[in-house]
Amino acid sequence: MRKTRILGVGMYLPEREVTNQELEAIKELETSDEWIRQRTGILTRRFVSEGESGTDLAVHASRKALDNAGLSPDDIDFVIYATLSPDYFFPGNGCFLQERLFGDRTIGALDVRNQCSGFIYSLALADSLIKSGQYEHILIVGSEIHSTALDFTFSGRDVSVLFGDGAGAAVVGPAPEGHPGILASALHSEGKYAKELWTEYPASAHHPRISHESLDQGRHYPYMNGRMVFKHAITRMVEVSHQVLSEAGKEVAEVDLLLPHQANMRINQMVASQLGLPEEKVVNTIAWTGNTTAATIPICMHEALKQGKLKENDLVLLTAFGAGFTWAATLLHW
Q1: What is the count of structural domains for the chain?
Q2: CA Rg, the chain, in Å?
Q3: Which of 60, 166, 273, 328 could form a disulfide with 12 if both were Cys (CB 3.0 to 4.6 A apart)?
Q4: Does residue 10 sit in the same domain as residue 143?
């Protein structure tokens, strides 16, 4: 059976930078630079400008990933688009990306709705499709716009200071003969915690899908039980990391680089500590991106390559936790 390898990655962040000081200036938010830094490790993040869509961000990131893979859109057979913030209720963003990148080529496009775990879920799916021989090259995109759906008042400050907008992309295809490629992936979900991190409205489960009452109550903004998410994220990211290491017959000491989902610096520090990985083996971008959900891991990959931290044949561990609850990990050779 052939193996799957990541051939190229790309990222794109909107031009507008929003610092903690800018958020501090919003009186209704009642926050400060110190408060945000201590609790999250975030210094700044990017927000889109008016008229800029998630698909716009995805196009930029995808083109960079294709360039870095040495491929053109004509080489791509399938698209997997991970997002929790689609441009519209339907159709999925994959269709909009197909039109923008591929024009008259009617290749398949699939949207994945697994929030912060979305990129790893997408990578695991792409791995299976490549191994099966059904497709040769797959474009995976994680693209998010949070800024247009955040509550910038005191009631929303625990969530609103966390998120940024951005996109990351990866092109995957068959690994060369003898290259180990992707070694193992593990995917999990636990729906009994779904309402601990969610956006309730608008929703087809409600009749009508949104109302003046729900808007007045702010139920169209994201809600998070921060303490529960913090605790579960650390536990599950460590567990699933050990799972893929075990399945691949590898030890933690063999890992060259950990690329965790960027939700909170304290979470990532705890995960690395419990795994026994030193700081120099961990890539974090949250200080200048915030949490870009499905885009965080490909952004980390791009940054690690740029800094020279990620090298040929490195053993790389990816791990994430998000709404659902969902969590996942992948172990691969770069």
Answers
A1: 2
A2: 19
A3: 60
A4: yes
The kind and range of the H/E element at 80 are strand 78-82
Catalytic residue among 20, 114, 264, 291: 291
**Are residues 117 and 231 both part of a single domain?**
no
**In this structure, what CATH number is given to the domain that contains residue 89?**
3.40.47.10
b/e burial code for range 279-313 (CB count within 10 A of at least 16 → b): eebbbbbbebbbbbbbbbbbbbbbbbbeeebbeee
Is 313 an active-site residue? no
220: annotated active-site residue = no
Sort residue 25 into left (φ over 0), alpha (ψ -120 to 50) or beta: alpha
Give catalytic status of residue 333 as yes or no.
no
- On whether both 40 and 151 belong to a single domain, the answer is yes
Contact 37, 43 (CB under 8 A): yes
> Which residues lie below 8 Å from residue 71, measured CB to CB, with a gap of 6+?
7, 8, 137, 171
Letter for the amino acid at 221? Y
Q: Catalytic pick from 20, 60, 93, 116? A: 116
Q: Are 95 and 58 in contact (CB under 8 A)?
A: no
Least confident of 159-163, 179-183, 211-215, 237-241: 211-215
Say whether both 160 and 125 belong to one domain: yes
> Could you list the residue range(s) of the whole structural domain that residue 281 is in?
182-333
Domain termination residue (choose one: 140, 174, 208): 174
d(CA 102, CA 82): 18
Task: Based on the fold, state whether residues 120 and 201 are members of the same structural domain.
Answer: no
Whether 218 has a pLDDT exceeding 90, the answer reads no
Q: Is 202 helix (H, G, I), strand (E, B) or coil?
A: coil
Pairing of strands 16-19, 4-12: unpaired
| Domain co-membership, 131 together with 260 | no
Q: For residues 44-65, give the mean pLDDT.
A: 98
**Within this chain, do residues 229 and 307 fall inside the same structural domain, yes or no?**
yes
What pTM, to 2 d.p., does this model score? 0.97
